[in-house]
Amino acid sequence: EGRETRLRVVLRVRPLTCTETRRGDQQVVHSLGDGAVHVSAARHDATFGFSAVFDAGASQEAVFEGSGMRQLVELAMDGFSCTVFAFGQTGSGKTYTLMGPLGQSDTQPTSPALLGLMQRSFTCLLEQSRSRASDLALSASYLEIYNEQIRDLLSPGPPCALPLRWSKSRGFYVENQLSVEFESLEAIVSLLLQGSQRRRTSAHALNRHSSRSHALLTIHVRSRAVSAHPAPGQGWGAQGSASACPSKQGTLCFVDLAGSERVKETGSSGELSVEANSINRSLLALGHCISLLAKPRGKRTHIPYRDSKLTRLLARSLGGSGITLMVACISPSSRCLSETLSTLHYASRARRVTTRP
């Protein structure tokens, strides 16, 4: 096992929306610099620290460069299992941070400045693959967890539930999941758009495009270094021997968690209410696992990964050999204070979690 590595946790504070400004919501979250934020409101006065804080004025590029995302891409290319996941209240900017305003307009292409962590990572990955002396194979898989069912977002035809298995060598894995190879930025962005359009979303009082499922897009990176020196008996035009250049397999997984929400505030009923309860249960299971993982290794009890499909799929990222970046997204509005504090406490606990890459 490698040495213990703490989860890197960064915070993004979205701007007040026009609706929040019109109704007179107060801004209760303030950046103090050096990775700290202060929450000041009636009966609440607290400061929280993170690896980095991006306030309302931070650009998508600043979040990519300042979060450590570029380093995560490079580690995936070096054969590590890397995960980035965004979490927070519904409407707090998780999907925007990861994808930008993806697919919200069919007629107007997304401005390059608005591209999210995912598209910027794809660009970085492809640039790195061209600059490195390696034989690289890239493929992508994309799934959602909707009402505790795992569905393939890239598989043609109506979505059907896929089984989640466990093996000693692989840990938890999804059986029969489609993996699609790609070689260009256009190809992987097309897969992202295709899958995202199949993802379950609905409108409610807090968010017109509320994700009703957790989504996981995984980039599989298989590389074999190409030796600059030919193997014995081969000419200069030949590649080095495979034994001298072992293959590496890394992954880069992007997790867009559905937002935690209070049914009373979102005005959800019927199917929306069922979805909300399923979302909240899985997020509660994730929070419970994080709380236990935040304890020193010698004091940990059993980690209940099997409590939800989400925690099973994130088991390696949180408590195993993965390298993980968490992006906590919050609203600065006084009306969202309770959920904002919940996210901040959640993120603070996650900072104490360690893995062994």
Features:
single chain, 357 residues, alpha+beta, Kinesin, ten-stranded mixed β-sheet, three-stranded antiparallel β-sheet, 11 helices, globular, microtubule, Kinesin_motor_dom_sf, microtubule binding, Kinesin-like_fam
Q: Can you describe this structure?
A:
Mean pLDDT is 86; it is low at 202-209 and 230-243. The strands form 5 sheets. Strands 2, 6, 7, 8, 9, 10, 13, 16, 17 and 18 form a 10-stranded mixed beta sheet that branches. Strand 14 (201-204) and strand 15 form a beta hairpin. The radius of gyration is 21 Å and the shape is globular. The chain has one domain (5-100, 115-225, 245-355): Kinesin (3-Layer(aba) Sandwich), CATH 3.40.850. The chain has 11 helices and 19 strands. Helix 3 (69-77) crosses helix 5. It has 357 residues and is of the alpha+beta class.
